[in-house]
Amino acid sequence: MKAPRDTRLVIGPNASMTLRMAWVVMGIMSVVSLGIAVMFALQGFWPILPFAGLELAALGVALWVSLKRNRYREVIVFDGNRVRIECGMTGEGARLSVDWARSSTRVLLEQGIHRNDPTALSLNNGSRRLTLGRCLTDEDREQLAARLRELILAGWRVGPLERAADAAPDGN
What we know:
Blueprint: E1 7-11, H1 19-42, H2 48-69, E2 72-79, E3 82-89, E4 93-101, E5 105-110, E6 120-125, E7 128-132, H3 138-156, H4 160-167
Antiparallel strand pairs: 1-2, 2-3, 3-4, 5-6, 6-7
């Protein structure tokens, strides 16, 4: 089976929380937390109210950070003999964009320094190195490394005869 030469891969966190869900969680936790705090405050334990407020503020910050991180994407485009990598947040455009020759790009999957450290997946082109897939599990990084190697090698296998066959109109 011939691997496709022109492919687009999108890497992102496995995040299912939407903005609406975050508001629902914040609302439910606010009602419960403030309800309990008010009950104690009515019994004379008024210092509980500021701590309940701090707790809700911390939850709000955690939800905001989670939603922001959910928007991170890495896009890898294999186009002919080029590899383009773009990283950034959805809706904001790419913060990082590199364009490398496919033939000189290498995939490297390294074990962590310690036994339980996660693996590190990177694309190397000469002395340049770009780490990918930080939001993935070790198993997902291994699968992605194998797929990237297939796609890079598919670009190497294109010879003059195959290019001519792709350019010629099909007579059937």
